């Protein structure tokens, strides 16, 4: 159970990081 929670945290972190990187790029072009 602890691994699934850690996996969800990692996914949410990667998604938020990807969004924070992708949004400025989309605004740029």
TrEMBL record:
What keywords is this UniProt entry annotated with? Cell cycle, Cell division
Q: Which domain of life is it from?
A: Bacteria
Q: Name one GO biological process term.
A: cell division
Q: Does the keyword Cell cycle apply?
A: yes
Spell out the protein name for this chain: SsgA family sporulation/cell division regulator
State the organism of origin.
Streptomyces sp. SID7499
């Amino acid at each position: 159970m602890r691994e699934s929670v850690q996996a969800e945290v990692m996914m949410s972190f990667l998604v938020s990081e990807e969004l924070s990187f992708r949004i400025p790029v989309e605004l740029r072009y």
